[in-house]
Amino acid sequence: MLRRSIVAGGNAMKQMLGFIQLIWRHSRAKTITLFALNLISSVTEGIGLFLLVPLLAHLQKDQPTSGGISGWLETLGLPQSLSGLLALFFALVVVRSMISYVRTLVWQDFQLNLIDTIRVNSFNALLHANWNWISNLKKSDHSNFLINEVDRIDEGVTYTMDFCTGLAAVLAYVVVAASLSFQMAVIALLVGAAVMFSMRAQHRHARDLGENLGDAYEDMQQVVEEGLSSIKLTKILGNEDRHRNLMAKILARLRSQQFAFAKTNAAAGAIFQIVIALVLVGFLWVGVKILELPLPSLMILVLILARLAPMLRNMQNQLNQILHAWPALRNLDEITKLAKDHNDIAPNILQKFDLKDGITLDNIGFKYQSRKSAALRDISLRFPARKTTAIIGASGAGKSTLADIVMGLLAPDQGEMLVDGQLIGDEQRVNWRHSLAYVPQDVFLFHDTIRNNLLWANRGADDAALEQALQRSAAQFVFDLDDGLDTVVGDAGLRLSGGERQRIALARAMLQNPSVLILDEATSALDTKNEMLIRQSLDQIHGDMTIIVIGHRLPTLENADQVVVLHDGRVNAVGTWAELSKNPDAAIPQEFKIDETQE
């Protein structure tokens, strides 16, 4: 799991403050604008309620108007006649409506931009994390984080702003209530504080449910991605029901968490309504029997309480929703921090290497954290420039790890790698990586046209450059397709054969004009014809660039300038194939000996 367990303790306000800080950091100017609009809207609403007192006094001529209110109206030079008060009340409603319109537009623009920024920045942090760290995480966790978790943060941000808007309105109501009866306002505040305080257990429960919901989302994302990625194997094995049952099980767990949260909110709502009804009864009794308030003032106080009741209920629900979303916000901070801590160091200037002499590995060692033994031990090796080096060895010998070291995807735990005598450290690793091309066994093609798949390697390449790369890769079959370069290859290139995908991948690599070309098991799954076409392509560029091939079959080894035999993470032998095939101590894998016999 990407998430850590929730640290015990903390409180609701502190966790809501996390969302407020997120909003503030995104745009201080817009945050201030939004809070100012909320404040102005609340003030106008409070003034509107304030004006209802003299309006009701006009309607009830035998009821006195509060002297304090009349004095304020006179001091501010506002009309006290019925027509004047009605006109002022209408004007306030118009102003508040316009403010609400502007606030909605500003908030919508702010919210969408905030969430898009979070998603893009998080994606960017993962993309720039070093390979050793990110390869140890599940892809489904990445997807869940960027989609579901960010959506939950979006909900938390929305509810936080709604809570702040409601809080501003509550304060406006309290001010109006205090102007009518200070004692009643104090009573209302104390009751409201007591009700919110009594909900602490539900707040903790909402937060815990939010944590469990996040785990359920991660599991669902994993089931979906693995089910769709393995659908061919699933059909062959007849395991459709198994995937369906896994999905149903995860969804049942997910719905259970969602229902539990809905149950918590419903219970809080029922309790809240009963408490508010009790408070309203007591409020009226105190106002009439003890304080003997004038009817207009009492009616406005009752109206304020009637408005506050659903408002406070909504704020209670919003607070639960904020706490429910808070684990996602915590995960955002943790994951982006981890990704940045494991970030590749970006070079000051992006500049490719032009390999002239060769690549030297000096006493290289590397160990994966998840394994007990080292993957590479004391590797000292040289790859001459513009020569072809083949690396062979049994499964687990360290071939792919060695390729990742040479490509700059992994940093060695010990030893050094030098290119033309220059040390490749953290500062040079990205530039070095941009100087080479890589073709793996499992080629990845985007669900797009052949043209756009090629342009990932060189966005500025014209059709002539694309055609040249295809010809150098023995991929002339593209020109015979009905749509040519504009042929859509399908999801992961499934509309093409394995050999066609490999040749498209090789053309994409050629389009980079690399100093070094690395092929990792690139033809091991191909038939003889397609392997011959790939080998012919390599023969065409032999001597023009440095080529490193891994785990290939005999014909390619025979044409290599040197062959390296890896055994148990160490270099066991180096030489030409003719030399190694006569060396009984070279530890050549059995499949190469069989291949030689067949030849």
UniProtKB/TrEMBL annotation:
Identification of the protein by name: ABC transporter ATP-binding protein
Keywords: ATP-binding, Cell membrane, Membrane, Nucleotide-binding, Transmembrane, Transmembrane helix, Transport
GO CC terms: plasma membrane
Membrane topology: Multi-pass membrane protein
SMART domains, alphabetized: AAA (SM00382)
Residues passing through the membrane, by range: 32-57, 77-95, 265-287, 293-312
Source species of the chain: Paramylibacter kogurei
Subcellular localization: Cell membrane
InterPro entries: AAA+_ATPase, ABC1_TM_dom, ABC1_TM_sf, ABC_transporter-like_ATP-bd, ABC_transporter-like_CS, P-loop_NTPase, Type_1_exporter
Predominant location category: membrane
Tree of life domain: Bacteria
One annotated GO molecular function: ATPase-coupled lipid transmembrane transporter activity
Sequence ranges assigned to domain ABC transmembrane type-1 in this UniProt record: 32-324
Listed SUPFAM superfamilies: ABC transporter transmembrane region, P-loop containing nucleoside triphosphate hydrolases
Pfam families named among the record's database cross-references: ABC_membrane, ABC_tran
Residue span, ABC transporter domain: 359-593
